[in-house]
Amino acid sequence: MPARPGPYLVEIRWVANPLRGDKFEAAWLPAAEAALDYGATSWGFYRAADGLLDFTQHAVFPDKESWERYWYSDEIGAARAEAAGLYQVPLQPTFHYTVGQGVASGVSAGA
Q1: Which single residue of 31, 41, 67, 74 could bond 79 by disulfide (Cβ 3.0 to 4.6 Å)?
Q2: Cβ pair 35, 28 in contact under 8 A
């Protein structure tokens, strides 16, 4: 675990098994969103537009303990078991600390 204090962006890259992308998406979306129930301040679940088998899950947790409470919870363990066979293993979460970030405001889509 990094030596810097949180918060941390945790990233997991998932690869769905061929012909299983839609089923994996439906199965894992509620589990990705459940990160908020375990202390995450934000979450995202993204699917690659090309190939449709690569997924990226992001969540921002205040500390590693909150992440572990989520990842090793009965709820998320059961979700992983339910989705078994839909994705490839192993899964290697990576932790990132913020170096910089920004949000666009007041920009219209046509500008």
Answers
A1: 31
A2: no
- Tens digit of each residue's pLDDT, the chain (111 residues): 446 778 999 999 999 999 999 999 999 999 999 999 999 999 999 999 999 999 999 999 999 999 999 999 999 999 999 999 999 989 999 999 988 888 888 766 665
The domain defined by 8-97 carries CATH number 3.40.50.2020: no
Q: Are strands 8-15 and 94-97 parallel, antiparallel or unpaired?
A: antiparallel
Is pTM beyond 0.85? Reply is yes
Q: Is 49 exposed, middle or buried (0-12, 13-18, 19+ CB in 10 A)?
A: exposed
Question: Left (φ > 0), alpha (ψ -120 to 50) or beta: where does 106 sit?
Answer: left
